[in-house]
């Protein structure tokens, strides 16, 4: 939780333009993302119809994980969350954005690299997303 909150706060500082309303809205978005991520073992932020998002979800489902999936194009705060995820990811692709055990894992490249090198399943087990 602390790592996610730190990632979200640092991204918020980079986004914030000093306007009080923007800051308030940003804090609300950061709070929402932090709550979702800290309350679930695996969270995948996606956009419906995105093929890379589909690949990540299918990989996780195939491993036996039931991730919490947040489709940003179907969320009222989807645009601001997408902007925040873009900042958290270091300016790269914003979705899919995968969080495991309350920590930002990364996008499709990182998830696939972890799967290929054998580190994904242990991460999922440590997060409580897999029991076997």
TrEMBL record:
Instruction: Give the organism, scientific name.
Output: Salvia splendens (Scarlet sage)
Entries under SUPFAM superfamilies matching the protein: Thioredoxin-like
Name the predominant localization.
Answer: cytoplasm
Question: Does the record carry Magnesium as a key word?
Answer: no
Name the Pfam families for this protein: Glutaredoxin
Give its localization. Cytoplasm
Give GO cellular component annotations, separated by semicolons: cytoplasm
Q: Taxonomic lineage per UniProt?
A: Eukaryota, Viridiplantae, Streptophyta, Embryophyta, Tracheophyta
Q: Does the keyword Cytoplasm apply?
A: yes
Q: Which family does it belong to?
A: Belongs to the glutaredoxin family. CC-type subfamily.
Q: Which domain of life is it from?
A: Eukaryota
Ranges of residues in domain Glutaredoxin: 42-104
Print the keywords alphabetically. Cytoplasm, Redox-active center
The entry's protein name is Glutaredoxin domain-containing protein
């Amino acid at each position: 939780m602390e790592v996610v909150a730190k990632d979200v706060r640092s991204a918020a500082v980079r986004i914030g333009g000093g306007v009080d309303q923007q800051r308030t809205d940003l804090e609300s978005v950061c709070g929402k993302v932090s709550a979702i991520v800290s309350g679930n073992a695996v969270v995948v932020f996606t956009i419906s119809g995105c093929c890379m998002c589909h690949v990540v979800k299918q990989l996780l489902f195939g491993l036996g994980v039931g991730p919490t999936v947040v489709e940003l194009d179907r969320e009222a705060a989807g645009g601001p969350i997408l902007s925040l995820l873009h900042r958290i990811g270091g300016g790269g692709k914003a979705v899919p954005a995968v969080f495991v055990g309350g920590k930002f894992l990364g996008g499709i490249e990182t998830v696939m690299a972890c799967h290929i090198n054998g580190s994904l399943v242990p991460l999922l087990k440590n997060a409580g997303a897999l029991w076997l």
